[in-house]
UniProtKB/TrEMBL annotation:
The keyword Transferase applies. SMART domains: GGDEF. It comes from the Bacteria. The lineage of its organism: Bacteria, Pseudomonadati, Pseudomonadota, Betaproteobacteria, Burkholderiales. The keyword Transmembrane helix applies. This is diguanylate cyclase. The chain crosses the membrane at residues 20-41, 47-66, 124-141, 153-177.
Amino acid sequence: MHTDAAQFERWRKRTWQLHISVMLSHVYAFALFLGHCWAGYADWSAVLWYGLWVVAGMGFITWAYASGWSQTRRDPGLFLMHQLLSISAVLGLLLAQPQVAFQAMVMLLAFSADGFLARRRTSFWMTWSGTLVAVAVIIYLKGPQMRMTTDTLAGQLLAFAVMVGGVFRCSLLVTYFRGMQYRLRAAHDKLAEALAQIEELVRFDELTGVANRKGVTERLHQCIEAAARHGRPLCVGLLDIDHFKQINDRYGHDGGDAVLRAFGRLLFTQIRASDCAGRYGGEEFLLIMPDTELHQAQVLLERIRQQTALLRVHADIQISCTVGVSQYRPGEPGEAMVSRADAAMYAGKASGRNRVVLDRGSSEAA
């Protein structure tokens, strides 16, 4: 709810900013038309009627924004009303005073840039298709009377001021939309970063600081594909903390969690940069060792086993682990490879725990 309110407030602020910019452009255009009257190129009455039409229309739109009435419309920004007001005023003045055709045409081009604000493309194309038809009719009817007011110094200054106003208005719109583009890009980058962090959390075990089962399993499949493609060796080790149930029974889950955290930190500090360690389930951890022969894996895991025995979470807790190791066989799925390591680990449990046991099939293959 708070986010929706903040978004609405930002939208409301931008709407008012654009509305004020449109009103200022109308004030500037009216001042230029008055300048044409003063220089003798247009009649005062026609320009004043133009001004009254714009004041009435912009006054109504201002009321619609301030009262909230515009929020009940399909187009709360009242884009179509803005466009119809501006275009009808300019076309009417062009028809009545073709002598100021140059300013009228430039104004129509400037207003066309507002098409970026249309909520639907159909409203933009319908508006400007009708405008082009109307301009064609007016040119046909009033073409001989249309002119550029550049035959006097005052007319030259007014013509230049018309171009300045048109370019300035288009520049403001370009700046506005470039700003929106930068903000959208920044928001997209933040969203991408947040999604990457979420993706990382999905594969991360918060308690132990290593990968979770999903993360380590995905990494295993990647390593198997690489080993199969390049013919490189690959080993996995399944590590199980001995007598973990007794630790939980005696010290509670807090004590068990402390042991798991300490073991996760140990794995993180002992493995190589190319290795991947993850919590496979409960007190079991899977270690993936790419480009590693079975005897090399045995050396690494034996060092980890010895370091585990040195861990001291509580003074009277003696921690040890039993490890089963297997080596990848060409064409073998990852589940089968882990299953062989699991069987070797259980063989180590059966023969007394606290040891590293190699899978027999892997030993023969090696």
